[in-house]
Structures are given as structure tokens and as C-alpha cells.
């Protein structure tokens, strides 16, 4: 009898010899072993994009801005330019323009149990799939938007006490979210915390270990204490802290550029400890449109990671359009993952 998708993912994460690799494909006609739950929007918040003229009374600097603006739930102002199809944009001004505002600031109650009530029904629709719960980020990802990225990087060095005060505020809300997911029978917590640029970490690795590693361990421990897996996305070159993330208990790393740090080197580090959750590299490989190269790379990932008795969840990237990757090219990737990773018994003999 074939394993259920939920069993496949769990055995993959546990290196317990799944019969095939796990899938997280989003294209029609392709399998997805996961069912996702997310925090419901705040019904009292306007998430839509607006003309800059509507905000000039509060933000005079928008008079020359040619695009659209909105507020996120924390209160930061975002903008996006014409031609930006990602629907994300960039922070123009953080909600905490000055640290003196922190003492009177109230972080939005994202852990309100009412914002999780719909998830039970989503899980029930696909009971045989691995139940994934999404957080809006780990603390760094959330805090950097509240101050604006370049300002927050300075804050880490110049205002460490304020950074840690805000960190505690954010972490408590995230812990409440984790507890809500656990009560719904969630299997794994997924979140994004981008720490790298193309060739290095955003901050000094030792500073990261002193300020942010303890918080991540606290969150990872909370997730594990509720019998759930930690699944973390991070962009860029994060080699300096990958051993630390493994040490504190990350179960799967979602990397969209798995070749950036040397895929063989990553496979050796992950060996029977961490699962790779990834498409074929979206920067160097998929955009080439070279079918043989794409298929060969998919096979290499199966050989390097899934041959260990688990360790690979093959996925789609979330925004092929922005990267100008044709669906045909992504289809070659999916098909080869399914063909070559569809039966792992050859590795278990």
C-alpha cells in the first residue's frame, strides 16, 4: 500500500526511507503533498494599494512618487513602481520612524485565535496531506520592515537594547501563533527570514550569534515542544550560519538558490540532519531555458539529498513571472523530479 502524502513528507524530514521524494508543486495537474494554513487578514485593516496623492497629508515626500502605496498591518508604508508585478514592493517608511515611539507602540494581535479558526476546515479538506502553518516571518524579517531595512541594520549596532525590546514584543506574538497552529494539529511551521545577499551575510556572523541566534533557538524549541517541524526559508549566501541553524534544530531549509553556496557542500553539511526544500536553482539554472541542464540539475538534487533515506522536498518557485521563467521550463523540472525521484528504492538496497 502506497504511503500517504503526509507520511511521505514526515518520512522525508525524519530520513526514514520514503518511497519517493516529497512534492510541493503548484501548477495544475501536478502533485502537492502539503496543505497550507495561513493567518487570516485583519478585517479592520486596508491592505490594498492606493494612489500616493491619498497619503500626501501624512507623507509629503510622496509628491514625486510615481507608483502605488499601502500600509502593512504593523503600520509601515510600502510603495511599488509601475511594472512591479510581485505585489510586494519596498518599505518607504517604517512605522517606527523614531525609537521613542516604541514605548507607546502596540504590535498587532496576529496571534488572536479567531484569525486561525478557518484553518481547521482547510486541513479537513485534504486530511491525507502534510499540514503546514505559515508565520509572517521570524523576528528579524518583521522588525526590519518596521524600521526600514538600511536603518534597522544600523540599529543592530547603534541601538541594540531597543532592537531586543522590539524583538521580545514580536517573539511573544509569534509564540502565540505557534501555539494556535499546534492546537489545530499542524505538522510543520514555515516562515521566511532572509539573512543573506549574493556573497555574504547581511550582518557580521558573530553579531548574529549574539543577538538573533538565541531568539531563533527559543522559537525552534517552542515549535518542537508542540511536536511540529521547523521549515525555514532564507535567501542568499548564509553559509556562515547554516551550522548554527542546524545546531538549534532547523528541520528543513527552503533555498531557492541551492547552488549559490555550492550544492555538493550544502549536501555534505545537511547529511541526514536537514532536508532541502527547493526548486532547481532559480538564479543560475531555471532561467537558462536549457532543458538538458534543468533536468540534469533535478537529478543531481535527488542523488545528493534524497539518497540519504529522505532529505528532499521538490517545490515550485512562487513567482516565475517576475523572473521571466517560462512554465514549460518549470514543467521540465517538475517532470524530471517526478520521474527520477518517483522511486527511491534503488538507494535503499
Structure description:
- The protein is α/β, with parallel strands linked by helices and 349 residues long.
- The protein has 3 domains: 108 residues, no CATH class; 156 residues, TIM Barrel, CATH 3.20.20; 62 residues, no CATH class.
- The chain is built from 12 helices and 11 strands.
- An 8-stranded parallel sheet has the order 1-11-10-9-8-7-6-2, with helices on both faces.
- Strand 3 and strand 4 form a beta hairpin.
- Helix 3 crosses helix 5, helix 5 runs parallel beside helix 7 and helix 10 runs parallel beside helix 12.
- The chain is globular, with a radius of gyration of 21 Å.
- The two termini are 19 Å apart.
Runs with pLDDT <50, length 5+?
Answer: none
What is the share of helical residues? 25-40%
Tell me the quaternary state.
single chain
Radius of gyration: 21 Å
Structural classification: alpha/beta
What spatial form do the alpha-carbon principal axes imply? globular
| Element order: H for helix, E for strand | HEEEEEHEHHHEHHEHEHEHEHH
* Average pLDDT over all residues: 96
CATH architecture of the largest domain: Alpha-Beta Barrel
Main sheet strand line-up:
1-11-10-9-8-7-6-2
How many angstroms separate the termini?
19 Å
Task: Give the amount of beta strand, in percent.
Answer: 5-15%
What name is given to the CATH topology of the largest domain? Answer: TIM Barrel
CATH class of the largest domain: Alpha Beta
Beta-strand segment tally? 11
Number of domains: 3
The major β-sheet equals: 8 strands, parallel
Number of helices: 12
Amino acid at each position: 500500500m502506497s504511503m500517504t502524502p503526509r507520511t511521505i513528507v514526515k518520512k522525508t524530514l525524519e530520513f526514514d526511507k520514503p518511497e519517493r521524494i516529497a512534492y510541493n508543486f503548484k501548477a495544475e495537474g501536478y502533485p502537492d503533498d502539503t496543505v497550507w494554513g495561513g493567518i487570516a487578514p485583519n478585517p479592520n485593516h486596508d491592505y490594498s494599494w492606493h494612489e500616493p496623492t491619498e497619503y500626501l497629508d501624512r507623507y509629503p515626500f510622496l509628491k514625486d512618487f510615481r507608483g502605488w502605496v499601502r500600509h502593512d498591518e504593523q503600520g509601515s508604508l510600502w510603495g511599488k513602481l509601475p511594472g512591479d508585478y510581485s505585489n510586494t514592493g519596498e518599505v518607504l517608511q517604517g512605522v517606527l520612524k523614531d525609537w521613542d515611539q516604541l514605548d507607546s507602540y502596540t504590535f498587532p494581535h496576529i496571534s488572536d485565535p479567531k484569525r486561525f479558526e478557518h484553518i481547521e476546515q482547510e486541513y479537513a479538506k485534504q486530511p491525507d496531506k502534510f499540514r503546514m502553518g505559515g508565520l509572517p516571518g521570524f523576528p528579524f524579517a518583521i522588525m526590519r520592515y518596521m524600521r526600514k531595512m538600511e536603518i534597522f541594520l544600523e540599529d543592530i549596532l547603534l541601538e541594540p537594547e531597543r532592537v531586543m525590546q522590539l524583538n521580545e514584543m514580536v517573539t511573544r506574538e509569534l509564540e502565540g501563533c505557534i501555539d494556535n497552529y499546534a492546537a489545530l494539529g499542524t505538522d510543520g511551521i514555515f516562515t521566511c527570514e532572509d539573512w543573506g545577499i549574493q556573497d555574504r551575510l547581511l550582518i557580521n556572523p558573530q553579531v548574529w550569534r549574539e543577538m538573533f541566534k538565541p531568539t531563533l533557538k527559543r522559537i525552534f524549541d517552542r515549535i518542537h515542544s508542540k511536536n511540529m517541524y521547523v521549515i525555514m526559508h532564507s535567501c542568499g549566501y548564509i553559509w556562515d550560519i547554516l551550522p548554527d541553524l542546524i545546531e538549534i534544530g532547523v528541520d528543513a531549509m527552503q533555498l531557492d538558490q541551492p547552488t549559490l553556496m555550492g550544492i555538493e557542500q550544502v549536501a555534505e553539511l545537511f547529511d541526514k540532519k536537514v532536508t532541502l526544500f527547493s526548486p532547481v536553482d532559480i538564479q543560475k539554472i531555471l532561467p537558462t531555458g536549457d532543458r538538458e541542464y534543468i533536468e540534469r540539475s533535478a537529478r543531481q538534487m535527488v542523488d545528493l539529498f534524497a539518497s540519504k533515506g529522505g532529505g528532499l522536498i521538490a517545490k515550485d518557485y512562487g513567482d516565475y513571472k517576475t523572473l521571466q521563467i517560462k512554465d514549460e521550463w518549470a514543467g521540465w523540472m517538475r517532470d524530471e523530479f517526478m520521474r527520477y525521484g518517483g522511486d527511491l528504492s534503488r538507494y535503499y538496497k
